[in-house]
TrEMBL record:
InterPro entries referenced in this protein's UniProt entry, alphabetically: Amidase/PGRP_sf, Amidase_domain, NAMLAA_amidase_2
EC identifiers of the protein: 3.5.1.28
The UniProt record lists the keyword ATP-binding: no
Alphabetical list of Gene3D superfamilies matching this protein: Peptidoglycan recognition protein-like (3.40.80.10)
UniProt key word Cell wall biogenesis/degradation: yes
Name of this chain's protein: N-acetylmuramoyl-L-alanine amidase
Pfam families for this protein: Amidase_2 (PF01510)
GO biological process: cell wall organization; peptidoglycan catabolic process; peptidoglycan turnover
Gene source species: Cutibacterium porci
Catalysed transformations (reactions): Hydrolyzes the link between N-acetylmuramoyl residues and L-amino acid residues in certain cell-wall glycopeptides
Top-level class of the enzyme under EC nomenclature: hydrolase
Keywords attached to this entry: Cell wall biogenesis/degradation, Hydrolase
Length: 279
């Protein structure tokens, strides 16, 4: 995980951590620009250079997570900040009135879209790990529960309403808390996430491209191979030690290439089915 040190922060007395606060970065650029790849690093660089006293521990976009502070360090993300960890999700999440352009406020459907959900999913996986390491109960806190000091997970809006030390209302009224909390509690490794499916599909595409290249090389050199086959009679099977007719050996290799290509196609079809189920 990339680390870009935030400029502003408190001391190293942040433990024990009792509250995990979810934020939205709110660049006011609209859907899906606010969540695109590279936003996590650019937000972290903003924390690194800004004169404003603001920072968070982690920032997540659709392709990357960047750490900006150690978890033992107090971040300036949702006062009172001590004993809390802040995760920023790159998105325009907040009430319509909090944006210069109200239409930039993400709807629930936009939060759940393939252009944004991978960032939320990254934050959920990170939240699962943080809660496990700091013994934070995986439960969504209400404003009243935050104010009472209960340990758990909440939004910046809950902290603002509980203590009135900030006026931010991210991640906003349309943030899909139900799906986010479900993603945190999903501890079944056999259930693929959208990020897993995308990664596997990319691997399959790469393998197919390599296979097509190899097949093309074989086809382009067919004339030369034919002449060489005519000049050869036998080859030794490296496994059994028996002699093979060269032509039979090459045909066996060719059929193996075709079989691999068929299997890769089946895997790609299965991944497409899984991707539709994840969506």
């Amino acid at each position: 995980m990339q680390f870009i040190q935030a400029k502003h922060h408190g001391g190293n007395e942040n433990t024990p951590v009792t509250r995990l606060v979810i934020h939205a970065t709110c660049p006011d650029t609209g859907y899906p620009s606010a969540s695109r790849a590279g936003r996590a690093a650019s937000t972290a660089r903003y924390f690194q250079s800004t004169s404003r006293p603001t920072s968070a521990h982690y920032v997540c976009d659709v392709t990357a997570t960047v750490q900006c502070l150690s978890e033992e360090t107090i971040g300036y993300h949702a006062p009172p900040n001590a004993h809390s960890i802040g995760i920023e999700i790159c998105a325009d999440g907040g009430s319509k009135s909090s944006f210069d352009n109200p239409s930039h406020s993400y709807t629930r459907e936009q939060w759940l879209s393939p252009q944004v959900w991978p960032a939320v999913e990254r934050a959920a996986i990170l939240a699962r790990d943080i809660c496990h390491r700091h013994h934070i109960p995986v439960r969504k806190l209400s404003t009243a529960q935050v104010k009472s000091g209960m340990s758990g997970i909440c939004g910046h809006d809950n902290v603002s309403d509980a203590f009135h030390q900030s006026d931010h209302d991210d991640p906003g009224p349309y943030f899909p808390w139900d799906r986010f909390m479900a993603a945190i509690t999903n501890t079944h490794p056999e259930e693929l996430t959208m990020a897993d499916v995308k990664e596997l599909k990319a691997s399959i595409v790469s393998a197919q491209q390599q296979l097509h290249h190899d097949v093309g090389v074989v086809q382009n050199q067919n004339g030369m191979l034919k002449k060489q086959i005519e000049n050869l009679s036998w080859v030794k099977n490296p496994v059994t030690g028996k002699l093979w007719r060269t032509k039979d050996a090459l045909w066996s290799i060719w059929y193996y290439i075709l079989e691999v290509r068929t299997r890769l196609q089946k895997i790609e079809n299965r991944l497409s089915d899984l991707e539709r189920k994840v969506k």
